Structures are given as C-alpha cells and as structure tokens.
Amino acid sequence: MDVLEIIKPENQVFCKTKLMTDATLSYCPGCGHGTVHNLTIEVIDEMAIAEDTIGVAPVGCSVLAYDFMNIDMTQAAHGRAPAIATAISRLWPNKYVFTYQGDGDLAAIGTAETLHACNRGENIVVIFVNNGIYGMTGGQMAPTTLCGMRTSTSPYGREIENMGSPLKITELVANLPGVFYATRQSVHTHKHARKAKKAIRKAFENTRLNKGVSFVEIVSNCNSGWKMTPLESNQWMVDNMFPIFPLGDIKVDAKLKKS
Amino acid sequence: MSELKLMKGNEALAEAAIRAGVDAYFGYPITPQSEVIEHLMAERPEERTGMVVLQAESEIAAINMVYGAASTGKKAMTSSSSPGISLKLEGISYLAGAELPAVIVNVVRGGPGLGTIQPSQADYFQSVKGGGHGDFKLYVLAPASVQEMSDFVEDAFDIAFKYRAPVLILSDGLIGQMMEKVHLKDQQKRMTDEEVIEKYGSWAVTGKTDRERNIITSLDLDPEKMEVRVYKLLKKYDQMEKEDLRYEKISCDDAEYLFVAYGSSARIAQKAVSLARKKGIKAGLLRPITLFPYPKHQLFELADQVKGILSVELNTGQMVEDVQLAVQHKVPVEHFGRTGGIIHTPEEVLEALEDKVIINGCIGNHKTRESSIL
After folding, report:
1. Which domains are seen in chain A, by residue range?
2. Listed residues B194, B228, B261: the one ending a domain
3. Chain A neighbors of B24, CB-CB under 8 A
4. For chain B, how many structural domains are there in total?
5. Domain range enclosing B304
6. Angular region, B239: left φ>0, alpha ψ -120 to 50, beta rest
7. What's the pLDDT tens digit per position in A56-86?
8. What ipTM score was computed for the predicted complex, to two decimals?
9. Distance CA B245, CA B286 (A)
10. Which of A70, A74, A136 should we substitute to test contact with B (largest number of B Cβ atoms within 10 Å)?
C-alpha cells in the first residue's frame, strides 16, 4: 500500500487542536510550555467554552502565549496577571478567566497579586509553570530555584543563607480559604500530561461552578536554562525538582490533603 | 434636572463616577484622597448601578485591575495621591502602550518621597511629560473646583474612549478636601455586556466569537512594527491638540500682565487678579484646563499683548518651563510658588507679580526663586 493512501482524514488519529494558531511556537525544542499550552487549549476546546474564555498572558517565556492560543487574550505587566484576571472575572462573571504564568512572574514580582487574588477567592484558573529559573531573560535565579542550583545569578549554586529557600507557593496559597483546588502536575511523559490535562479540566469546571481559585502548578523543565539536553533535563527534573516539588493534589474541593 | 449638594471634591468625584455609569473602580487608601473609595463603598454602587468597587492590595494591583477591566471595553477608573501614582506609572504606561481607555485621578500631595499630606502641584512634570517609561502622553484635566471634580469624570471617559487612551484628572489635596456646592448630574445607565460587545467588540477581549481573536498587548519585538505603534500614539496626541484643548481666559482682554495657573493655584491667582486691578494693575489669568494638550498658541498670542507673565504653581517651578517654551522669549516669564504643602495667598501672588515681573521684569534681571520666597 502506498503511504499516500494511508495519509487521509479518516485515518487520522491525532490532529492539532483547532484552537491553537498556526504560528510556530517560540519555545526551545524540549520545553514543556508547548505541551501545557496544548493541554490548556484542548480543555477549552473540549468544554466548548472558547467564546466565553479570556486568557491573561504574563511576562516571561510565555509572554507570547496569545500568539499561539486562538482565543481572546490580554497581556499583563510582570506579575500582575491575577489582578487583571480579578477585574475581568468581576466584570464578566459568566466568563472563564485564566492566567498563564511562570515562577518568576507568579512567585517573585507578582507574589502580592497572587496571594491576594487567592485570598479573595476570585473565580479564576491559574496555570503556573514552574521550571525553577527565569528562562526568558537568560537563566537567572528564580524564587523556585533549588538549593545549590547554578544559574547565571547564582553561579556557585543557590545558597540558602544568602538567597533563601525555594518557595513552595502552591502549598502556601492552598492554605488560603479562597483557593478551592490546588494541584501540582508535570507534562514530561504522556501519562503525566494526561493527568495534567485532567487537572486543568477540573480547574475550568470549578470556574463553571463559581468555586473560586483553581491553582494548577506544572513542574516543568528548562533545558536551555539548565544547560542540558531535553532528555537530560527531564531526568534531572524527576531526580531533583520532584523531591522538593512533589506531584499530586494539595487541595481538592476546598479540603487540604494530608501530606 | 440636577441635584444640588454640599460635598468634598473627593466625594463629588466618587458620586459622579456612579452617576456617569462607570463600570468599575479599583483603589487603595492614601491621604488626601481616601474619601473617593470611602464614598463609593458607603454608597453600595453594586446595588445602585451594578458598578464594581474593590479595594486592592496595592496601588499597583489597582491600576492593573483597571487594565484588566479596560481590556474588556468596560469603563474603569482608579484614584490615588502622589506616592501611589508613582507606583501606578508602570501600569499607566502599559495602558497607553496597549491603547486602553481608562481614567486615573491624582489628588496631589507634597513630595518628594513620603513628603506631606498637604496640597501640592509638584506632580506637574510627572503628569504632562509622560511619567512612566516610553514614548507616551496622558490627556490631563486639571479641575479647579468641586464642580469640576464632578464634571470631569464623564469628560475624562469621553476622551479616554474617543482616543482609546488613559486620561489623568490632576487634582490636589485642596480641591479634593474642600467642600463646595455641586450640581450633580442625573444617573446614567451603565452599558450592558451586549452593548459593550457591540460597541467595542472590534478590539476588546470579551471572548472570541466568529470574529478574529482580539489581543490586548503593548509588546512588539519587531522594531519596525514598534515604531509604527509609537507613531500611532503620536497621531492621537496631535489630534488631541487640535480637537480637545481646554482653557479659560479671565480678565485677559485688556491685560498688561498675565498670571498662568491651573487647579487650586488658578483660584488663588484669580483673586490676585482682582486685588491687582484694585491697585490699578491690569492683570489677567490664563487657566489651562487641560495640561496636555497645553494652550501654547494662546500663550504665544497673549505674549504680544502683555508685558510680563507669572506662572503660579504650588511647586518650585515646573509648568513655567512650558510657559517659557510657548512664549519663546517674547516677554519675561517668571515663576512663583510655595511648596512642601504650603498654599500661597493671593497677596503673596500679587506681591510676586510686582516684585518679579513688574519691577524687575526684564530678562536677566530677576531674583532667584529661593530669595523671593524667603
């Protein structure tokens, strides 16, 4: 049988989500952002809520998220996405409002906006991609950088005495009454990506039910910033990031899980 | 039919916001403007019109909430005082860059730093020269009465939506705190979501329907495109100068000497005009109502008529630079002002006119600002 006879629509088992644009992703090959984008947009597509969804893009590697997601989006100042999402959600209570943020954006410069949006229980979804580094600006130390981890601003490794410990912001916000759902996922294998997608779906379902903040952390790699091959970076993430940022639900249906 | 009330400037502004059908206010307490959010909270605007009022965790969060609301085509505003406005300037720059309509109110207090809670006009440069980063300007309205605190809210939103640009109401602690009679306008309806989508759906993010997706951003990594964006803003500012300049001339017809003053200083200078005329000095007052655009052509023309000009400001000399630029050395231009929260008296202002402009009124023969104050 000729190959061209096989390549036809009825035989297609996987296709690009139509809600992703045709723009080429600006992410480094091997980076988890593309997968997280795809999962988010698949959930929006499957729930058929694109017409009622407004996304807020951050400053950082995913600043151009609006180039790739074929939905209405507004781009926030560094760290301020939760404040912007707050206003949109308050003024359009029937819309699905989500922020897409990295660890520098959400857990350093935007800490106040993150904590207070969570504390007020804004009816929003927060997608938080944590790769332990500032990728966009060239690999500087982030609030989530691991102890001893070398970055361009911690060239001899992060020292706890001078630079503090990696900030577990998802555990922190999970303790706030306004947070209904807090979970930590990853997308480095198909299995993990499927679980992450379920978590994102649950988060958007919570918005539908007006439950408050759903906070989905995705521990991801930054092979360029970590100066590794994609495969090495994924293994390094499993060996080093997961012990500090363990995967799994932290708070479900407003109830904290016992750790 | 309008309702007549005795109100503080800050309260009149807040009440006008509800009545103008504003969709949202986001603020953070700071003296001397906290009455704005206090009035809004007390009035339960969510029940009166459905207006959203939220006390944010910071001035930074508040201006970004405004950005979020404005992204969706809603009428949103915030207010603060000088140190808080400094914090908001990043967000204001983003509003200008992303071409979003919004209203920001600065009830100015003395600075720099924590400064004082007393009135000042020391934020003139910050207000009219951009303030935040990048090539942009704000349309700046300067109220001089409680009535104008009320009226300018609607005017500011009209301009903001005409140009899709942020508008600043530059008040000060005196106008904000004092009580005067004010005619309040009748309640207007807020636009429904459907009306917002109908009117602003070409650019606002309200959810992508069968149209192209809408994106609100100030980012363009391609310098060629970014330059185009900046020139697009410049075009708006040119149009503002042509179509939306506002100023008031008081006793200017036969004036030989001119005061230039805005806001609270204009009230004081107006009194100085009548004191001067009692003494036989033919003084007049040009009051810029918009500080950008600035009545530079009007000043240029008045400079052919008068012998000298005194810029009266509650600062050490800021607007005087714009007066000098407008007048282009046709006549001497001097500055007088108290600062640090002190408000000059009409007598002081008249004395300054006599001392700096009438007697020493030739270029190169004037006292220093410092020596004239002390």
Report:
1. 33-256 (3.40.50.970)
2. B194
3. 87, 90-91
4. 2
5. 247-373
6. alpha
7. 999 999 999 999 999 999 999 999 999 999 9
8. 0.95
9. 13
10. A74
